[in-house]
Amino acid sequence: MEATLSRPAARCSCLLKTTTPSTSRVLLLPSNQQQTRQKSTRARHKASLNIPPHPSFLSNPSPSSSSQSGSTTLIFNPPSSAPSVFQTPFKFLPKTDPRRRATLAKNLFSSSVTTNFATQPVDVSSLPTIFDDRSPATTPKNHSLTKEDVEEMRRLRLADPVKNSVLSLARQFGCSVMFVMMCVQAGKEHRDKVHVEPHAAARERWGPKKREAKEERKRRMEMLLRGEI
Amino acid sequence: MMKRLRIERAAGQLLVARPCGPSTPGAALRSSYKCTTSQVPVRHSSSSSAAEAEHTPLYEEDGTDHARFPPLEKLPPNTSALPSPLPSRALESAKLSALHARLSLSPKIPLQTLARTLVDASADPNPYFNNSSLAFLGATIINYHASEWFMVHYPRLPMEVLEAAMTGLAGPTPLDRIAKAWGIEPAAAPGGEVDPGLLQFSLDQPGETVRGFGYTRTVVDKINKNNWQRSVAARVIYEDNLPALPSTTKAKQTTPAVAEQEEQQQEEQQQDDSEVDYAETSPAAPKFSPTSYGSSTTRELSEKAHANFVRAVVGAVFAHCGREAAKSFVKAHVLSRQLDLERLFAFKHPTLELAMLCAREEFDPPVARLLSETGRLSRTPVFVVGVYSGNEKLGEGAGATLEQARLKAAMHALKAWYLYSPGEGVKVPSDVLGQEEEEAAAAGGKKKGGWEPVYIDIGELISR
Q: Which residues, listed in sequence order, are joined to residue B186 by a DSSP beta bridge?
């Protein structure tokens, strides 16, 4: 053995190997399947196991004074869990709610937020966003589209719905996807041609496993929207 | 006709008290059933054969051979011809007294009224003897208190969720459970000879119950004629209460369904003499387990009868003890039940709905941000996504893909909006109903407001 393994089971196997070499061949896995730790990887594995304790265990305000006085400190470090729905965010509280007045100053003048995972407050804008085309936040909105613009949009979409897709028109005119869809709807033939026919042809080729997997995925999405998973 | 054998009375035949109850005003109406209450029941002694010979013809209407199966209880003559037991027999029933004591009902509520609450409209069609009027009264009281509680404690609930919550708290299923928790046993078949302490309903004919008073709006006919789609709000305004009261139209609709199902069962039995498969006969009844007794129709009728009994008891409490007693009764038995409101929600496009909410309330548009992740390239990754409006986190969700986590975060934010509650200690309107009167009486002309207006939401985000 090149390295000392920290797992108890591995230690047992080491013992077996050293003491009874005849039985170890039977008990242990063949050498090509056996997990081995090389010297080159040992330090890395040890380092990854070396997890620092949670900050709540470390942040003792004055360890010398507490040890002198013998006072006990309360450590609050609950296991991670999904946040409760019944804790209403500050923005959702109505203006008459007394809880709003209690936390008004704190919420108005802070630009950074402590997440559950970071020890230090993190600037919200530094967190990576998840791109969503339809989200109004990520789409630049042009609220000054004229009637001519809308007419042009309609003409383009109806002339060549494949080339002038909803997304490309939204980017071209600087409006949201929803607005394009509100202004103009491509014909039913186009919808069938783009969304139904190619998928129908592909669906024909699906085997039972793929079909089942697709159905399960659909079912999972329905369960998700019902809040069951 | 099946008869319930009362084994507990078999030994104490001689210990049964003589029927000597006070004649109730309703009892005089029994004359329509060709039975005079003034007729004193003759004492029946088992030792005299002459008396037996005298009385046997009286019991033979239902075809029971009373020489072989002598009645366990001395009943007044012509009893088995009646559709429900005489009100005077309520005083003899041990079951009724036990129920009265178990529910800690006030002594103001007589046993005769409690006996009447146990007679369903399907057992006795006469509204003077069945519980339909009491059940209607009780249903309005239960629905009022439940809806008032929801309105004040969760002012932003959408109508659909409110309807589901009302059905979950005060609908037929929870009321049926309450009746069973009270220890109510159904009689095998209704009749004048059964113990008045048993719940009596018929599985053969659905009874007509009082659905509502007042007038029906003419719009409803037009809506029905044109088959227009209607929202929950429109249904509440034009037609139903929340949840729907026992309706006559529904009862009428069940009749062909019962016949159809019986036909189906007969056909199946003719085809093969095996037992009827529940999966085939009742595919649309998932709330009952396939091992439970009866068919889906009979279980539905049983549930309806049990629920109407609970409503009738509430109505009786209101009629005899007043508003406050009825309120505390409803609070103790109906409103105290647990209901997980969070699980009643289902969304279609949560992210879009949240964006619409933020636009309506003039918040910053919601942005989904990745808070933490693990195992992105593994088989079981976990992403934690938060939805932010400006600097404020509205919701958070964890999922196996970024899309799932984002949807869950949006749903969480929406639920947090809809399930806003001003707190536990908020007063409902009925809390200050008596206070205001007292204060007005005490202060004379000087009126001091005991009611603080509660928060009322401006309306639904998406009309459904």
A: B199
How far apart, in whole angstroms, are the C-alpha atoms of residue A138 and residue A129?
Answer: 9
Chain A residues with CB within 8 Å of chain B CB? 82-83, 85-94, 96-97, 107, 110-113, 115-117, 124, 127-130, 132, 134-138, 224-227
Rg (CA), chain B: 28
| Structure confidence at residue B460 (pLDDT) | 86
**B103-139 pLDDT per residue, tens:** 999 999 999 999 999 999 999 989 899 999 999 999 9
B interface test, pick of A80, A88, A91 with most B CB neighbours within 10 Å = A91
* Joined tokens for residue B44: 């029946």
Q: Token digits for B446?
A: 């000087």
Contact B420/A92, CB-based, under 8 Å?
yes
Which domains are seen in chain B, by residue range? 86-271+295-335 (1.10.1520.10), 345-418 (3.30.160.20)
Helix axis angle, B296-321 to B323-330, nearest 10°: 140
Q: Are A117 and B388 an interchain contact pair (Cβ–Cβ within 8 Å)?
A: no
What are residue A19's DSSP bridge partners? none
- Tokens 């390239």 map to which residue? B377
pTM given for the model: 0.72
pLDDT digits (tens, 9 = 90+) for B186-224: 999 899 989 999 999 998 877 666 555 555 667 777 877
SS3 A22: helix
Record: contact A89-B392, CB cut-off 8 A: yes
State the Cα–Cα distance between residues B146 and B75, nearest whole angstrom: 43
- Closest to A83 in 3D by CA, of B419, B403, B378: B419
| Secondary structure (DSSP) of A138-203 | TS---TT--HHHHHHHHHHHHH-TTTS-HHHHHHHHT--HHHHHHH----HHHHIIIIIHHHHHHH
Hey, how many other C-beta atoms are within 10 angstroms of the C-beta on B265? 14
In angstroms, rounded to a whole number, what is the distance separating the alpha carbons of residues A102 and A97?
Answer: 9
What residue spans of B90-131 are helical by DSSP H? Answer: 94-102, 111-117
Chains A and B form CB pairs within 8 A to the count of 115
Closest CA to B210 of B315, B289, B109, B323: B315
* Whether B364 contacts B381, CB under 8 Å: no
Closest-CA residue in chain B for A220?
Answer: B404
Asked whether this complex has an ipTM greater than 0.85, the answer is no
